[in-house]
Design brief:
- With 333 residues, this protein is an alpha+beta fold.
- It is 40% helix and 26% strand.
- It has seven helices and twelve strands.
- A hairpin with a 2-residue loop joins strand 4 (112-121) and strand 5.
Length: 333
């Protein structure tokens, strides 16, 4: 089964929502700004069904680009303030980028965002500051790029911004909402569609009309098809038209083929057969499971590292407070 990320998110949203209007479709825009790409999907919802109106994306714009803006800003600031070159030290660059990823979220609710890193290079502790206005000015070109897939999605859907009921994860004139679990929404939508296609599971009836935003390529030898035979003379010029469809599994099928004789208006329906060998072998399935297992283990290690770091920081701050209290109460006197 093949499914667009935006469609999977929309399926999970529509299956569990019950307050759709009876006066016509309700339009929702879904926005997924990942680490390195941005995807926008517009869907129309009614009770028991949904239709994808448009997909749009920028495959080279994501959170890492805004991190890079902050990295360059603080690298320059630290060079001027402490006379250190972060770019010359790989470990310092990694630590600064990690801090920038956290700082990036602060200006959303605050007018300024501080940064503090102990022993960034050698024994040098650094502190810095960036205001929301500075961040927005430095990110102006990126913010302009963000609006492009939004506008394209609206244009392709034939809707205006005022016709949107809500925007999930991001907003313009509308207030954004975050009712979806960002870590699970794609996987949940895919699981629901798999359950719909399964002959052994019973799922509430829900109709999905997908939009296919990509070019169709059938590589040889996996996408092989036969058209014909037909009886024409060698001197006759013919034109063959194909009709393709997207089946319930997200796979393109050849629906029909028509041959038109150029010398007259005669048309002939040609028999078609195809051999789309897209099944997964046991070795491929085993390899995918092993890769998934490794990725899961990496995620667990990252979360454990975060917890350990938070515990260590809490211990350091707590110890520092106790030392200061002891100093003030005993040693200073």
């Amino acid at each position: 089964m093949l499914m667009h990320d935006g469609t999977a998110i929309a399926v999970g949203y529509g299956m569990y929502k019950t307050d759709f209007s009876n006066w016509g479709p309700m339009y929702v825009m879904f926005v997924d700004i990942g680490h390195c790409d941005t995807q926008v999907t517009v869907a129309a919802f009614e009770q028991g069904r949904m239709k994808i109106m448009s997909h749009s994306f920028d495959q080279n714009l994501g959170g890492r680009d805004f991190d890079e803006v902050l990295f360059k800003h603080f690298a320059t600031q630290f060079n001027e303030k402490y006379n250190i070159d972060v770019n010359s030290n790989a470990r310092a660059s990694v630590r600064l980028r990690e801090s920038c990823e956290k700082v990036k979220k602060v200006p959303i609710a605050n007018t300024e965002a501080p940064i503090s890193i102990e022993c960034l290079i050698g024994d040098t502790d650094v502190t810095g500051l960036i205001t929301r206005d500075e961040f927005e000015n430095m990110s102006s070109k990126l913010l302009e790029r963000v609006t492009v897939p939004f506008r394209m999605a609206l244009k392709d859907s034939g809707l205006s911004a005022d016709e949107l009921y809500t925007i999930e994860l991001f907003g313009s004139r509308k207030e954004p909402t975050r009712t979806l679990n960002a870590s699970e929404c794609v996987a949940r939508g895919c699981a629901l569609l798999c359950a719909m296609l399964s002959p052994t599971l019973i799922v509430r009836d829900y109709k999905i009309r997908e939009s296919f935003p990509y070019s169709i390529v059938i590589p040889s030898p996996q996408g092989e098809c036969m058209i014909g035979p037909s009886e024409t003379s060698d001197s006759e010029k013919v034109e063959v038209q194909f009709k393709v469809k997207l089946n319930g599994h997200g796979i393109v099928e050849i629906n029909s083929a028509i041959m038109m004789l150029m010398g007259n208006t005669k048309t002939l329906n040609l028999p078609t057969s195809e051999n789309l060998d897209v099944s997964t072998t046991n070795d491929e399935l085993h390899e995918a499971k092993e890769k998934e297992k490794k990725l899961t283990e990496q995620d667990i290690k990252v979360e454990e590292t975060k917890d350990q770091r938070n515990t260590l920081e809490s211990f350091v701050y707590d110890t520092r407070s106790k030392v200061l209290i002891y100093w003030n109460n005993h040693l200073r006197s």
